[in-house]
């Protein structure tokens, strides 16, 4: 009996580990599940596009996540702020064929310098931006680099 209970528990833990790893690998795909609505902004005096997040994305708001992407430095001398892209610089939202859901602001715990297009995995708290048109729709706060390729 104990042998079966151990085997069941071990199998359950192993499957949960693979599920978590799969979620990490698919986070950019999850974040792409966004729709846009037009709304008039009094301050700007024009229509702006505001995000409508899927429920699975809203469930991640305020949660610690890991995400891998390409560095788009905002300050080349080193800073505590950068932009992370799902795609290399030539294909990123600012330069090519991607949408605003494929980039996020990263606020580092400690100032650090990265080369443009470095592939880095960060861990931090995901924040969704519902209406501030001066920021990207995704922000990673208290972020730390955990893998630099």
Structure description:
- With 149 residues, this protein is α+β, with helices and mostly antiparallel strands.
- 22% of the residues lie in helices and 42% in strands.
- The protein contains 3 helices and 7 strands, in the order ααββαβββββ.
- It has helices at residues 2-25, 27-31, 55-58, and strands spanning 34-41, 46-53, 64-72, 79-85, 103-112, 119-128, 138-148.
- A 5-stranded mixed β-barrel has the order 3-4-5-7-6. A two-stranded antiparallel ribbon has the order 1-2.
- A hairpin with a 4-residue loop joins β1 and β2 (46-53).
- The longest helix is centred in the N-terminal third of the chain and has 24 residues, at 2-25.
- The radius of gyration is 18 Å and the shape is globular.
- Residues 1-23 have low confidence and may be disordered.
Briefly, what is this?
With 149 residues, the protein is an alpha+beta fold.
Rg value: 18 Å
Amount of helix: 10-25%
- Tell me what portion of residues adopts beta-strand conformation: 35-45%
Q: What would the principal axes of the Cα set say about the shape? A: globular
Contiguous uncertain segments of 5+ residues: 1-23
The separation of the N and C termini measures 46 Å
Oligomer: single chain
Question: How is the biggest beta sheet arranged?
Answer: 5 strands, mixed, barrel
- Which strand order do you get reading across the main beta sheet? 3-4-5-7-6
